[in-house]
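Dock magnesium ion; give full complex structure.
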Amino acid sequence: MKSKSKRSCGVNEVLEITLINAINQSLDQEMERDANAIVLGEDVGLNGGVFRATEGLQKKYGPARVIDTPLAESSIIGCSIGLALAGFRPVAEIQFAGFIYVAMNQLVNHLARIRNRTQGKLNMPIVIRAPCSGGIRALEHHSESMEALYAHVPGLKVVIPSTPYDAKGLLASSIRDNDPVIFLEPSKFYRAFRQEVPEKPYTVPLGEAAVRQEGEDVTLVAWGSVVKASLDAAAQSGKSVEVIDLRSIVPWDKKKVLESVEKTGRLVVVHEAPHTGGFGAEISATVSEEGIFHLKGPVLRVTGYDTAVPLAKREDYYIPNAQRISKAIIKACES
Amino acid sequence: MRKKVFEGSIEYFQVLDEDGKADKALEPKLPEKELKRMYELMVLCRVFDKKAVSLQRQGRMYTYAPLEGQEACQVGGPVALEKEDWVFPTYRDNGAYITRGAPLDLLYEYWMGFEEGAAMPEGVNVFPVSITVGNHLPMAVGMAWGFRMRKQKKATMVMFGDGATSQGDAHEAMNFASVYKAPCIFLCQNNQWAISTPSAKQMCSNTIAQRALGYGIRGIQVDGNDVLAVYKAVSEARKRAEKGEPTLVECITYRMGLHTTADDPKRYRSDKDVEAWKQKDPIERFRKYLKGKKIWNEKYERKVQEEAVKKAEDAVKKAETFRADPAKFFDFVYEKKTPALEEQKQAFLRGE
Ligand SMILES: Cc1ncc(C[n+]2csc(CCOP(=O)(O)OP(=O)(O)O)c2C)c(N)n1
Ligand SMILES: [Mg+2]
């Protein structure tokens, strides 16, 4: 794995790496740690995945643990269930999140329900990794943010990192988790920036949000692809914004959000996913149920639209940008 | 008691060998005009395609999936259809669009990231490309089945790759076609690769065509770099379609270029493999055949090339000057916008 700079702080090596490097490193370390961990998917072996998330892994662990599958998502996920029954810990890569749908039956009717169906007798330690969200000028079906679909399925956990540090630690937690995890990776962040990340393995717990920046005027909750734009917007707005990166939406860190709203009295939720039925609605509803007396004004949402994600030329009109988010921050502060 | 309850075999044919010599017993009887049309279309496909790759390299177009090497399939298949028939293509089948009369500027527009480019004019019976692999086969079967129910003489042809044959939808569709006697032609371009996955790792069956036997439909394998072989196989399949007999045609071909412009084939295949397939180039082979028939000469070649280049360049100009309404992506989600969507569009227009 390539790294730009390397710095030693005591015994712990810290590397400046990208999000894709972090995913790669985490897969590598988890496979090393647990001989049952296997990686499977389309083009993940020799090619190292179309984004190179699995680069070098087949060489290191062999084609029996890093498996190039035929082109069939339903069997990638269905067979992952079977492999888990045989004692493996499958980490399946779906080439883009938009290609999961042929496997929806395996996912919703089976994977998510096997623990319940066997009355707790069986674990389903499966991670399904997929690049998500827009911003890379790709073709149709390569840019969607459909996390709310999975959040609505009892039995699935849903994780969306926005930084290299989190990606590494959250993926480790997801692989070690005994429940199925949908692990969505914002593709535009794969190589967008670097961050100092410890070389040794560590975990970031699922369900614990990160406060990216503390603030007094308004709470902004975001995850995945729009965290960066939210931070930019916070800076542009001139307001004191508390920016919370949820990191996983199932489970989600209700406590941290409610505590922040208690402090600021205002809430803006930002997601790239379509407006209607987005996970922002869940957060807004929860705050109205459990924190309404702290609110000075209505909860605002900045989201994608209830449309298909436009193709490359219009893509930027769809994705919430710092300008749109900043307007919402200012509007929220007017109440 | 034991007895054999099934026996089957799959035929392969080639009309033109690598030197462009025709197998007289198989050679379709096509008028000179039609042969020239096919040749000109193949050249146009290649010129269109090379232009697209070069535009992408110059940052004037987004991710593009080149068709180079597959011109025989993408011309020979669609030309064998009737005007009223429908084609269901993949992202790699721009050649099929061109053959069916799609305006080149629309194709470029689509790959430049405008939805408008996918909307074909009346009479160009090509469905928008399936970006998801293998999921368009049932649609093509459904339409063909519908034609049959309406007692129309039309057929559909669905184009897909070797990788697509692994999808459940592909298998289900062939079974439905068989059960409902759908006038559907399954045109598989086995170009040896699904991104980095070679056909040999995609499946352990010797041929894709033999799968047809499992559904009780006809399967045939042809040289996919031989435009006359593809033409012949599809015309015969088209005739059978009218009798309610679907056919799976497997074309053995090769993806000469990148999977898409985002791909680096050096990671998974050697230049030597690609070189070997260069000798089988579909356009050169057809050219040799036409030359042998005294249909082709240098002067004709220059004219064909010049015309193709002009068509492609004019189309690029048109596509690059296309100005789109930014808010149009709100307009075709439903026949009539929901109140929520209308509100969103208005907010967008106000710049909120
Ligand atoms: C359902 C689905 N899964 C994965 C992909 C990603 N993908 C795009 S093309 C491709 C390979 C397709 O191979 P093949 O069917 O042989 O067609 P070819 O690209 O060779 O023309 C893959 C895996 C996709 N587009 N759709
Ligand atoms: Mg292929």
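Observed: Residues A 42, 71, 73, 95, 99, 102; B 90, 92, 131-133, 160-164, 191, 193-195, 255, 259 surround thiamine diphosphate (ligand 1) (CB under 6 Å).
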